[in-house]
Design a protein that fits this description.
Helix content is about 35%, strand content about 25%. The chain is of the alpha/beta class. Helix 4 links the parallel strand 4 and strand 5. The longest helix is centred in the C-terminal third of the chain and has 23 residues. The chain is globular and about 55 Å long. The chain binds coenzyme A.
Amino acid sequence: MPAPLITGWGKCLPPAVLSNTDLEALTDTTDDWISTRTGMKERRVSHVETSDLAAAAGREALAAAGLDPEGLDLVIVATCTPDRLVPSAAALVQQKVGATRAAAMDLNAACSGFIYGLAVADQMIRAGAVRRVLLIGAEKLHFFLDFSDRATSVLFGDGAGAVVLEEAGEDGGLLAFELGADGTAAEILCIPQSGTEGFPGTERRARVQMEGPTVFRRAVEAMGDSALRVLEKAGLGLDEVDLFIPHQANLRIIEATARRLGLDASRVMVNLAAYGNTSAASIPIALAEALEQGRVRPGALLVLAAFGGGLTWAAAAY
Ligand code: COA
């Protein structure tokens, strides 16, 4: 069975920058607090919708793969901030990129969404159901932030990252993955009143709520443990990992996870200073930048790990 491979990648970061200093004017915070507690310096804010960011990243990935959009069989958008509940962001992307033959669906596993999508796309290709998939992580998170709440508003940003996966007839690709969830911890990171339980009304929007320190602890455990389990499933050791690409939620979470795994900074991809936490978009954006920076050589072993609302977590050895 030919291994599905990533044959193209792309990203879209909206040009408007919201710096830590800008946030000082919006909420009771300081550049120093945000920098030292999170590692973030700035994030992007989008004036267009999630599907626009997703389509821009998707077009770049298609160009990199040298693939016409009509060649796609499936578009998956991993997002928890779609333009609308119906139609899916993926259906809007299908139309925007001209993927006329493709099925389209959104996937919501919060910040773990891209790795969940990678597993779904890989397994559908291996099953022979589809041959070419455009997988995008895209978010417009600032819409769901309360800029008077300093505990959440400083952490998140907007953006999109995309990959094309194709049946490639070679070895490699996704060697092992793990997807996990603990719904009993749903309330520690959520956006209440953003669905059938109701909406806050026209004066207010639904807002991200989070128990930061609890999420922090769970994140370090979940990302470290699931990364170890996927390596074990793949029959590989930590010494063979070329690059660890974790979800970009907090530099201290990444450093604590890397310490648990015994990985030094040269083997860990970090770009959150520029973008903050872009949820499902964070890993594909980091992957695209690692590729652009020449940090991913042919045959490299990548380990991806994420956690997010749900709680969900996921890891992949690729
Ligand atoms: N600016 C200034 N002070 C702030 C602040 C901000 N933006 N946010 C919180 N504080 C204050 C708190 O009020 C608290 O003050 P107090 O000691 O007077 O009560 C103090 O800083 C420490 O707060 P705490 O929440 O314990 O800080 P922390 O070191 O745990 O850092 C987070 C807070 C949110 C950065 C951290 O817990 C975190 O990153 N958690 C995970 C979040 C995450 O990854 N979410 C997304 C998951 S996908």
